[in-house]
Design a protein that fits this description.
Number of helices of chain A: 5
Low-confidence stretches of chain A: none
Radius of gyration of chain B: 20 Å
Strand content of chain B: under 5%
Mean pLDDT of chain A: 91
Number of strands of chain A: 4
Order of helices and strands of chain A: EEHEHEHHH
Oligomer: heterodimer
Strand content of chain A: 5-15%
Shape of chain A: globular
Structural class of chain A: alpha+beta
Structural class of chain B: mainly alpha
Mean pLDDT of chain B: 91
Strand order of the largest sheet of chain A: 1-2
Helix content of chain A: 10-25%
Shape of chain B: globular
Helix content of chain B: over 70%
Strand order of the largest sheet of chain B: 1-2
Largest sheet of chain B: 2 strands, antiparallel
Number of helices of chain B: 9
Order of helices and strands of chain B: EHHHHHHHHHE
Radius of gyration of chain A: 17 Å
Distance between the termini of chain B: 6 Å
Chain lengths: 149, 299
């Protein structure tokens, strides 16, 4: 986040780091600085199946989540979905409608989402109980993603 | 070496691509010309060569700045890069470049039409130095890539920028027919910079080689791996040995004895070696695997 020269990369109060596509100038310094390679440069608009038009999923996706060519993107934990769910009084990580789509759709239930600040949350207990660890803690990035044993 | 299937993501040493492939090539050229131009202005100012300063200034803003802008995904938003100098080296670099452009224009105009104050020249020299060094700091801040994450990288880029700038300034003197006046002093500076470049490159590669497995892989790829022809053929032989031969023969038999064509070739090969070495540094930046290294079968 520190390396971003434009302030496009921001951290929300709930800890989610996201890239504002209206501020990013596409220098890709954040991609270099990310030791996890978790960022992507969205170069231009293209179809998943070349010359066959957009699929219905792509059409809906472009309406709901318009991408800005020439900017960097990263996973933002479906923050629009989380915000919409919380506006209804739902709790992220507990209620489906306030939880990232990958977590609720994972067929093997391999992912969990929740509040790391709350010691009683499911994710906090899992990290304690199953020796959750961060990747490359030596870089000092203190990622919020933990891997369980 | 390179991810081929989704489940292999970052399971091995992964090369960075964004700053060298596709439009990333433009950034490689941008860093080269920015530092070359600033280095040339710095050296030309020491020898009171107004044309040398002007050409260095032009190289920096037209080629360096131009390639920088062309590289950006959203070039019209470049002004936003000035907003975060407190944390971002790119932001600091943009400010240095902007200062360099403005102060350089004022100094050159004053020096050409009237006289420029010495204080302005001193400030311009400091800014030129900062322009030369910022790219190295920007890259050395990337702690995921061992080849870049070393304090020697900014030093290397400064020495390379000044050496290239000095060679180009020598070319301006040759073209302007004023070589006999200040050429010998400039040749002395080139001798020192050439020696410094050899030492810094050797120290850089050696320190990175023993810093980590990722560093070892990068250096191996450059020196004995896939890129060895470029390193030994272009960087070492043409870029260093050829200018070294010219410098030594000039030292032993006098500069006047060296054919002008050889001096021009020496300038060309030095620049070629410099830009090639920068390419190798960008091309061979590897990230550590995300999985524990002990589980990786081979680099």
């Amino acid at each position: 986040m520190d390396v971003c020269p434009t302030g496009a990369t921001q951290r929300r109060e709930d800890g989610i780091v996201w890239v504002d596509p209206d501020k990013c100038m596409g220098c890709r310094y954040c991609m270099m600085a990310c030791p996890y390679n978790s960022r992507t440069f969205y170069s231009d608009e293209h179809e998943y199946f070349p010359d066959q038009g957009l699929t219905p999923f792509e059409e809906i996706g472009k309406q709901l989540y318009p991408h800005t060519p020439g900017t960097v993107e990263k996973c933002n934990f479906c923050m629009e979905r989380i915000d919409a769910g919380m506006a209804k009084g739902l709790k992220p990580g507990v209620d489906r409608e306030a939880t990232p789509a990958c977590v609720i759709n994972c067929p093997t239930k391999a992912m969990y989402f929740g509040d790391l600040e709350d010691p009683g949350s499911e994710v906090s207990m899992l990290i304690r109980g199953r020796k959750g660890r961060q990747l490359h803690p030596e870089y000092g990035t203190d990622p919020s993603i933990y891997y369980l044993e | 070496m390179i991810q081929t299937r989704p489940f292999e993501f970052m399971t091995r040493y992964t090369p960075q691509r964004e700053w060298i492939e596709g439009r990333g090539v433009l950034l490689w050229l941008a860093f080269f010309f920015i530092e070359l131009g600033a280095g040339m202005l710095f050296v030309a100012a020491l020898f009171n060569s107004l044309w040398g300063m002007f050409i260095g200034w032009l190289i920096c803003i037209v080629l360096g700045g131009g390639f920088h802008l062309l590289y950006l995904g959203q070039p019209l938003r470049f002004y936003r890069a000035f907003l975060r100098p407190q944390t971002s080296w790119i932001s600091r670099g943009m400010i240095f470049i902007a200062l360099f452009i403005v102060l350089g224009a004022i100094h050159l105009a004053l020096a050409y039409w009237a006289s420029s104050p010495l204080a302005l020249l001193v400030i311009l020299e400091i800014v030129a130095f900062l322009v030369t060094i910022y790219g190295g700091f920007a890259m050395s801040y990337v702690n995921g890539i061992p080849l870049w994450n070393t304090a020697l990288l900014p030093v290397l880029y400064v020495v390379a920028g000044f050496w290239g700038g000095a060679e180009l300034a020598l070319g301006v003197m040759l073209a302007g027919g004023i070589f006999s006046q200040t050429g010998p002093e400039l040749e002395g500076l080139i001798r020192m910079l050439l020696g410094a470049f050899i030492l810094v490159v050797a120290a850089y590669l050696t320190s990175v080689r023993y810093s980590s497995k990722g560093g070892e892989l990068s250096v191996r790829e450059i020196v004995t791996g896939r890129w060895w022809p470029l390193f030994w053929g272009v960087v070492a032989l043409l870029g260093v040995c050829f200018p070294l031969g010219v410098v030594v023969s000039g030292y032993l038999s006098g500069l006047e004895a060296i054919p002008i064509a050889l001096l021009w070739l020496s300038i060309f090969f030095e620049l070629l070696g410099d830009v090639t070495f920068r390419y190798l540094i960008l091309r061979n930046g590897f990230y550590h695997p995300l999985t524990p290294i002990s589980t990786v079968p081979s680099a």
